[in-house]
């Protein structure tokens, strides 16, 4: 038995839970592991890889807003163990796969974002400004391009940074809101018996920052793994705008830019998951990510970024066969 497993069992026993009753739950793209127990869901976050403190702090903040983040029932912050309220298995993505109508579910999710936008972000949150936005976009240069056979030189990186600054900077003077950063149907639970907005369970929010209110909406509606028809994206965007003080044309422009930035980041992250972390299944999402990115690059606010892609990433490098193997290298 591994030392980590021994410590896990000790933590569970201290909570009065038989370790034999812990069953693993499906993993995600992080270093965390989850186990369902009769006393709640155990999060195993090795402290050399993950810090559970941001999760705990944000969970408590979201609950203070009347939202349904899981309650923290027990914790060992130093060793990376959390026992969380079990919000069930009713993921939005599962409900959609089983035939649920998308519009009511997405309306509930949009209403959560509206509720969040009505409160100032906590003062302890870092800003989602040019520094993290550039760092995320750079994942494309650091992972996707080299795997596609292109090593970006200094000029390539400099013009990349200039293009993204031109696209992003005009939107960074908007009053910030709490941005969950990974708001999509795989991280939302349908809690049917709770009143709104608490009828949506929230997961995976430990990386939250204070940024533009369009980011989470773009994350929700421009989701490469769960694409929505354009008319539904438009109507849900209008739902958000009708309940906030955002100026519509500026908000839509920010939505396009932040969606493009997110898709660019995802191309890098999915390539890294395939190559570094030996999870080649993520490569199957690259074509859909490119389609979404190319659609958003048509926006006028992204002219410089679009021109950079056209110069440096020709169409053959935007195809799955740009990679030399199935992701095991």
Protein architecture, described:
It is a single chain. The chain has 329 residues and is of the alpha+beta class. The chain folds into two domains: 3-84, Phosphorylase Kinase, domain 1 (2-Layer Sandwich), CATH 3.30.200; 92-322, Aminoglycoside 3'-phosphotransferase, Chain: A, domain 2 (Alpha-Beta Complex), CATH 3.90.1200.10. The protein has eleven helices and nine strands. The chain has helices at residues 3-14, 53-64, 92-97, 102-117, 130-147, 154-168, 214-221, 230-242, 248-275, 286-296, 303-312; strands at 23-24, 33-37, 40-44, 72-76, 81-84, 177-179, 188-190, 200-202, 209-211. α5 (130-147) crosses α6. The chain starts with a helix and ends in a 17-residue tail after the last helix. The model has no long low-confidence stretch (mean pLDDT 94).
By CATH, the architecture of the largest domain is named Alpha-Beta Complex
Give the end-to-end Cα distance, rounded to a whole number of Å.
30 Å
How does the overall form come out from the CA principal axes?
A: globular
Structural class: alpha+beta
CATH topology of the largest domain: Aminoglycoside 3'-phosphotransferase, Chain: A, domain 2
How are the elements arranged and paired?
Layout: H1 3-14, E1 23-24, E2 33-37, E3 40-44, H2 53-64, E4 72-76, E5 81-84, H3 92-97, H4 102-117, H5 130-147, H6 154-168, E6 177-179, E7 188-190, E8 200-202, E9 209-211, H7 214-221, H8 230-242, H9 248-275, H10 286-296, H11 303-312
Antiparallel strand pairs: 1-2, 2-3, 3-5, 4-5, 6-9, 7-8
């Amino acid at each position: 038995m591994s030392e980590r497993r021994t410590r896990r069992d000790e933590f569970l026993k201290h909570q009065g839970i038989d370790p034999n009753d812990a069953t693993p739950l499906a993993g995600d793209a992080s270093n965390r592991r989850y186990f369902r127990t009769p006393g709640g869901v155990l999060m195993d976050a090795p402290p050399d890889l993950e810090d559970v403190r941001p999760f705990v702090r944000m969970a408590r903040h979201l609950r203070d807003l009347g939202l349904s983040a899981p309650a923290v029932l027990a914790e060992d912050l130093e060793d990376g163990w959390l026992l969380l309220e079990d919000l069930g298995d009713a993921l939005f993505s599962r409900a959609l796969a089983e035939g649920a109508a998308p519009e009511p579910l997405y309306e509930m999710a949009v209403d959560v974002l509206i509720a969040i936008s009505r409160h100032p972000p906590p003062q302890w949150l870092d800003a989602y400004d040019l520094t993290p936005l550039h760092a995320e976009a750079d994942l494309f240069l650091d992972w996707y391009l080299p795997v596609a056979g292109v090593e970006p030189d200094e000029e390539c990186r400099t013009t990349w940074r200039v293009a993204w600054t031109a696209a992003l900077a005009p939107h960074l003077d908007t009053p910030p809101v709490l941005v969950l950063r990974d708001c999509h149907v795989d991280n939302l639970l349908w809690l049917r018996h709770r009143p709104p907005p608490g009828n949506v369970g929230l997961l995976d929010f430990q990386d939250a920052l204070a940024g533009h209110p369009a980011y989470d909406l773009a994350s929700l509606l421009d989701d490469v793994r769960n694409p929505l028809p354009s008319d539904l994206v438009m109507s849900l965007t209008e739902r958000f705008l009708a309940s906030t003080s955002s100026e519509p044309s500026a908000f839509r422009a920010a939505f396009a830019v932040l969606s493009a930035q997110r898709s660019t980041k995802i191309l890098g992250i999915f390539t890294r998951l395939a190559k570094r972390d030996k999870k080649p299944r993520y490569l199957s999402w690259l074509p859909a990510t490119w389609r979404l990115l190319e659609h958003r690059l048509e926006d006028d606010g992204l002219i410089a970024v679009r021109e950079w892609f056209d110069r440096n990433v020709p169409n053959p490098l935007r195809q799955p066969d740009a990679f030399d193997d199935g992701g095991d290298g």
